[in-house]
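Now for a typical sample entry:
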Amino acid sequence: MKVFIVDIAKCNGCYGCQVACKDEHVGNTWEPYSLPQPNTGQFWMRVKEKDHGQVPKVSVEYTPWLCMHCDDPKCEKAAPDAVYKREDGLVIVDPVKAKGRRDLVGACPYGAIFYNEELDVAQKCTGCAHLVDEGKTPHCVDLCATGGLRFGDEEDFADEIARAETFVPEEGCRPRVYYLNLPHLFLAGDVWDPADNEIVEGAAVTLKTADGSTLETSTDDFGDFYFHRIDPGIYDLKIEAGGFKPVERLGIELTESLNLGDFPLERA
């Protein structure tokens, strides 16, 4: 069974995969798997872009997004006559039987199915099944410049799949596109000494979660601290440094990545 592996840490947002998909499918018919993709309005492979944090502590997350080629696809349940799953795991919307099946667009919880108004047919990523049949890789994978997007047999990626994540698992679709190094959220700030107008390096910063677990870090040589890859929730923050009074901020509600700003420390 085939899988896609997407390593977010290696994705630099070049959009090469998105362009590759257009290059392969716009104006090209790959029957029995697909009719031409429109030049505009559809992205069978697209790169989602999300900003995290606030100035000056900001990061950008790039997430390649395609059909998840689920083991239990809801599109197939919605139209078993028009959608099928190949033995290698790729999910295909039949370009003939999906004529007029506009309902398929809403059946996908990932928003990966589009409707071609001109051809009157539901369409999506095929995993470049026509290339896979020839022993080649999907075009998006082939043109990924950083190695952040890979494709192959499930058993060859077993170690990575064991530590990977999938999107919308609560839908029960069991997607076969696995993501490594998803950033989740971050909490950040900076610590300084207003008496000397200098940053405080090496201050101990502790973050306590609602369940009582703690995370620890220290300020860097710019006085900054970061807690990366944390989940939404309520947190208590404490900052301690030699010669200064401790500072606490309680009940921080984290729903998006957050720059807490600066923390001036008072001399003990």
